[in-house]
Amino acid sequence: MLTHVRKIGNSAGTIIPAPLMKKLQLQEGDMVSIAEQDGNIIISPVKSRPKYQLADLLAQCDPTAPMPESLQEWDQATAVGNEI
After folding, report:
1. What is the pLDDT at residue 84?
2. Which domains does the chain have, with CATH numbers?
């Protein structure tokens, strides 16, 4: 597959043909990684970070676990400004 390098502002870019976009399941706005390897340009799709739900994160917590010492001091500190 051939494509041209085009000027885009002070940089340059190339077009990813639609069949390749479809094959790689890429959409406009997706993040890609660009690297040089042995004189070649390697463009790889970047997997998006998982989106977490609050309930899933809370399910991983142990509410009976003791509070770490480093947080106990902060938790018991008095207000010093307009926090409250």
Report:
1. 66
2. 5-45 (2.10.260.10)
